[in-house]
Structures are given as structure tokens and as C-alpha cells.
């Protein structure tokens, strides 16, 4: 097969799909299914509802090495209306887990901001677990110009 | 390997007020995904846990994975019931613990 631009692009896409099995390109990039599985592990099998959680990310990140991400959850942070933890996933990173925040009544508000690494354009997912057991989710796509994983 | 942490906590607040705290610590957060010049993987070394307590009570905690950027930065809120001291700790993969504290006065 001739190595035209089109072939190379096709091969790369194919190789990415096989990377998990063959490990030809390491690190293997996690698939969206992996992230979904991790969400389920975190929630204990409960499908997260919409709303309550809002994830703030830039639409386009020029540098995948530091992407500001902030998450807030609507809650009184008192009694049973308490956010216990919020987990952040990036479904296109070699390892989808990014960070887990734990809140208490002393937090006052369920709000956290940090900076994360994104390997490529992908979805960032935030899942919040409340004290009463309910779970909520928000998802945002971030376009990454320069990836932030390895070199 | 981490340098002195930087923390921003207001000097004073009114009782029960919710304040914003910002923290930053210099750390490479080596992800374990990178390779050196000879193609050998560089072992992972990150800060894996950050905690903030107020007079012994947990305020905010974070478990970090390698996807958190170098020089991990956090911004979060805290309720101030009385005068006291916020204590911050960062746990490194190599077992080191970095600590800092900041007092706050309730007027």
C-alpha cells in the first residue's frame, strides 16, 4: 500500500482502535466506553440524572497541558441536601480519571476549580454524588489544539 | 521536589461567611506516560491527595490522578464558623507530605 496522506490517516485511526489490544501505540488511549464504565463504577450502577451539576470548560483549549475546569453543584450543603463527591473524567485520555473532589458541610458551597491535562479533543464529564444517593452528570466537549500527554 | 505552597485565604470574615480559598503548589506531576530520550518510560510521580481542614474538621479533599496539570491549582469554598486556622496538606507519591496553614479571624 502506498503511503499517501489518506492511507496514513486511515491507518492511524485504525491503530488507535487496536492500540488497547496490540499496544502498538502506547500509551493506549482510553475509549469512551471505558469512561462510561468508570462513571457506573463511581455511581454504583445508577444512571446519572441531568441538571444540578454545571461544568465550566473552555470551548477551545489551545494548550492541552493546562485546561481550566470548574464545577459547581446546586445544593444547600446542609443536612441531607449535601454533595458528597464530584468526579471528573476525560473520556479521551490514556486514563479517563482526572480528579475526585470531596465536600463536607464545612465547604459551604460545592464548587471547585482546577487545571487538567487533555490528550486530544474530547468530552469532559463531571458526576456528582449526593448524600441521599442520587447522582447527576454534566458533559462538555473541549477542542484541544495541542495535546497534553507525554511528548 | 515541590516548592513552598502558595495559599490565598482572606485575613478576616464574618461568622458563617463562605469564603474562597486558592492554593497552588509547584510540582512536576510526572504522569508516567512520558518517555525519556532513550525511550524508557519515566516513572509516575504525582501529588495524589490534597486536603484542607479547619480546626481538625474536613473542609475539602481531592484525589488527584495524573491528568491534573503540573503545579496543581485548586480553588474552593469554605464556611468560617469562628476564628481559627486552615491547614492544608499535599501527599506525594514518594511519601513526602507538604504542609501549610493560614489563620483567619472572625470579626
TrEMBL record, chain A:
<dbReference type="InterPro" id="IPR006311">
    <property type="entry name" value="TAT_signal"/>
</dbReference>
<dbReference type="Pfam" id="PF13501">
    <property type="entry name" value="SoxY"/>
</dbReference>
<dbReference type="InterPro" id="IPR032711">
    <property type="entry name" value="SoxY"/>
</dbReference>
<keyword id="KW-0732">Signal</keyword>
<feature type="domain" description="Ig-like SoxY">
    <location>
        <begin position="44"/>
        <end position="149"/>
    </location>
</feature>
<feature type="signal peptide">
    <location>
        <begin position="1"/>
        <end position="21"/>
    </location>
</feature>
<dbReference type="InterPro" id="IPR016568">
    <property type="entry name" value="Sulphur_oxidation_SoxY"/>
</dbReference>
<protein>
    <submittedName>
        <fullName>Thiosulfate oxidation carrier protein SoxY</fullName>
    </submittedName>
</protein>
<dbReference type="InterPro" id="IPR038162">
    <property type="entry name" value="SoxY_sf"/>
</dbReference>
From TrEMBL, chain B:
<dbReference type="InterPro" id="IPR013783">
    <property type="entry name" value="Ig-like_fold"/>
</dbReference>
<dbReference type="InterPro" id="IPR014880">
    <property type="entry name" value="SoxZ_dom"/>
</dbReference>
<feature type="domain" description="Sulphur oxidation protein SoxZ">
    <location>
        <begin position="7"/>
        <end position="102"/>
    </location>
</feature>
<dbReference type="InterPro" id="IPR030995">
    <property type="entry name" value="SoxZ"/>
</dbReference>
<protein>
    <submittedName>
        <fullName>Thiosulfate oxidation carrier complex protein SoxZ</fullName>
    </submittedName>
</protein>
<dbReference type="InterPro" id="IPR014756">
    <property type="entry name" value="Ig_E-set"/>
</dbReference>
<dbReference type="Pfam" id="PF08770">
    <property type="entry name" value="SoxZ"/>
</dbReference>
Amino acid at each position: 500500500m502506498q503511503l499517501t496522506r489518506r492511507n496514513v490517516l486511515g491507518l492511524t485511526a485504525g491503530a488507535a482502535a487496536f492500540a488497547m489490544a496490540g499496544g502498538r501505540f502506547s500509551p493506549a488511549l482510553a475509549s469512551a466506553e471505558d469512561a462510561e464504565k468508570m462513571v457506573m463504577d463511581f455511581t454504583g450502577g445508577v444512571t446519572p440524572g441531568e441538571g444540578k451539576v454545571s461544568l465550566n470548560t473552555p470551548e477551545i483549549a489551545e494548550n492541552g497541558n493546562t485546561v481550566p475546569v470548574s464545577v459547581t453543584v446546586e445544593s444547600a450543603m446542609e443536612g441531607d441536601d449535601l454533595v458528597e463527591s464530584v468526579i471528573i473524567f476525560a473520556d479521551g485520555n490514556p486514563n479517563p480519571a482526572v480528579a475526585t473532589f470531596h465536600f463536607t458541610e464545612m465547604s459551604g458551597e460545592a464548587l471547585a476549580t482546577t487545571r487538567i491535562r487533555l490528550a486530544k479533543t474530547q468530552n469532559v464529564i463531571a458526576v456528582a454524588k449526593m448524600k441521599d444517593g442520587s447522582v447527576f452528570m454534566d458533559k462538555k466537549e473541549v477542542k484541544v489544539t495541542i495535546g497534553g500527554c507525554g511528548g | 521536589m515541590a516548592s513552598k505552597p502558595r495559599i490565598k485565604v482572606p485575613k478576616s470574615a464574618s461568622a458563617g461567611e463562605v469564603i474562597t480559598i486558592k492554593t497552588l503548589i509547584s510540582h512536576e506531576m510526572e504522569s508516567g506516560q512520558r518517555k525519556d530520550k532513550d525511550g524508557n518510560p519515566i516513572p509516575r510521580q504525582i501529588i495524589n491527595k490534597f486536603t484542607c481542614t479547619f480546626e481538625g474538621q474536613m473542609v475539602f479533599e481531592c484525589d488527584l490522578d495524573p491528568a491534573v496539570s503540573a503545579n496543581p491549582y485548586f480553588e474552593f469554598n469554605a464556611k468560617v464558623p469562628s476564628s481559627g486556622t486552615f491547614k492544608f496538606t499535599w501527599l506525594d507519591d514518594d511519601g513526602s507530605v507538604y504542609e501549610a496553614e493560614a489563620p483567619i479571624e472572625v470579626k
